[in-house]
Design brief:
Elements (H helix, E strand, L loop, with lengths): L7 H13 L26 H14 L2 E10 L2 E10 L2 E8 L2 E8 L2 E5 L2 H8 L5 H11 L3 E4 L4 H7 L4 H8 L6 E9 L2 E8 L6 E5 L6 E5 L6 E5 L15 E3 L8
Parallel strand pairs: 6-12
Antiparallel strand pairs: 1-2, 1-11, 2-3, 3-4, 4-5, 5-6, 7-8, 8-9, 9-10, 10-11
Helix pairs in contact: 3-4
């Protein structure tokens, strides 16, 4: 007779009760619960195949939220970005300064307070003029010229493809590294070079999306959520925008 399945929790409780009989001296085998039971199955794959699958579903997802920190060069950037194929929006904090980024298609905008702009505008210029310029830029969406060095630097934070391609890569020999949970979702962990090459937690529920990444070399930790949840993007209104010109102040 084939038993009727009654759900993972009931099955787990039943298995625990049966295994408890082992204390009476009866030798039982197979009492350990399979951590991959009732999952999407990627936990039974090799680390290389898990990484390939998670990259594939991440690339095909229409949108994602990325939250955490990234070390690039000598700076640490704290990110809270929502991204999709044609742009993104969110906040970036570095060296105590926070600014917002918004990209719609090819148009990139940066919004920060006057203090942020005064640090850049005040390098070697007239103090009063720089203060006036910073005041004008503060609190507005400043259009970043595509030829400005800041465009290349900051647009990557708003580019889903570029950002994920650069992040979802573990270095060294890949291996599975146990099971865990992230925000209540069961995960399988894969690592590169026993963790020194980074670790990635992949969802065992639904699609195998990446949920948490520890970058190699201590270069930051990021969480990923809201996969496939669309959001609206629009350019700011004219009264919210300042067109600074061909090049922004260095900041």
């Amino acid at each position: 007779m084939t038993p009727i399945r009654q759900g993972r929790n009931h099955s787990a409780a039943l298995a625990s009760a049966i295994c408890a009989l082992a204390v009476t001296g009866t030798v039982l085998t197979g009492c350990a619960e399979d951590p991959n039971e009732g999952t999407n199955g990627v936990g039974r794959l090799s680390a290389e195949k898990i990484q390939a699958k998670t990259r594939s579903v991440a690339e095909s997802a229409g949108a994602v939220r990325v939250h955490g920190n990234v070390v690039s060069g000598e700076r640490t950037y704290a990110l809270d970005m929502r991204l999709k194929d044609d742009g993104g929006e969110g906040s970036v904090t570095t060296e105590g300064a926070t600014f917002r980024l918004l990209r719609v298609g090819e148009q990139l905008f940066l919004k920060a307070d006057a203090e942020f702009w005064s640090h850049g505008a005040g390098q070697g210029g007239d103090g009063e003029a720089d203060a006036a310029a910073a005041s004008k830029l503060g609190g507005k969406f400043v259009k970043v010229p595509q030829g400005d060095p800041s465009y290349q630097k900051f647009s990557g934070f708003t580019d889903k493809g570029v950002l994920l391609d650069g992040l979802l890569t573990l270095h060294g020999k890949l291996a599975t590294d146990g099971h865990d949970e992230q925000a209540g979702i069961r995960t399988i962990r894969i690592s590169g070079d026993k963790g020194s090459g980074g670790t990635l937690e992949v969802s065992l529920e639904g699609k195998p999306y990446p949920l948490r990444l520890e970058r190699a070399g201590g270069a930051g930790t990021l969480t990923f959520s809201a996969w496939g949840q669309d959001f609206s993007l629009r350019e700011p209104e004219k009264n919210e925008t300042v067109d600074y010109g061909r090049q922004l102040p260095t900041s």
